[in-house]
Amino acid sequence: MNEKRKHPRTPCALPVSWSAEGAAQHGVAKDIGPGGMFVASEARPKFGTELTLTLRLPGLADESALPAVVRWLGADGFGVMFGPLGARDTHAITEMFG
């Protein structure tokens, strides 16, 4: 497979929620990196959908709200590319590569 990502990803298993078309949805982030994540979920938003993903990143006391856009769809979930992230969230994600 030809890897197109600019940033590496690390495996994880973080509960995540988002809202698409007015309905709250849930899934599990299976990998994450500074550029995006893969969300395993039965519900899959349409390609190009802008989302806010809500999850608790390791090392942070509060939940994070990460802006993202859906960049690909698979049989078991979808991949997103993050929008601009704050320093706190960026640091928490990069620390996961420790």
Short description:
This protein is mainly β. Helices cover 9% and strands 51% of the residues.
Description of the structure:
- With 98 residues, this protein is mainly β.
- It has one domain (10-95): Beta Barrel (Thrombin, subunit H), CATH 2.40.10.220.
- The chain contains one helix and six strands.
- The protein has a six-stranded antiparallel beta barrel with strand order 1-2-3-6-5-4.
- The mean pLDDT is 91.
What is the CATH C level class, in words? Mainly Beta
Largest sheet, strands/sense/barrel: 6 strands, antiparallel, barrel
- What is the number of beta strands? 6
Helix content: under 10%
Q: Please give the CATH architecture.
A: Beta Barrel
Structural class estimated from helices and strands: mainly beta
Characteristic key phrases:
single chain; 98 residues; mainly beta; Thrombin, subunit H; six-stranded antiparallel barrel; 6 strands; 9% helix; globular
Task: Lay out the secondary structure.
Elements (H helix, E strand, L loop, with lengths): L9 E11 L2 E11 L2 E5 L9 E6 L8 E11 L2 E6 L4 H9 L3
Antiparallel strand pairs: 1-2, 1-4, 2-3, 3-6, 4-5, 5-6
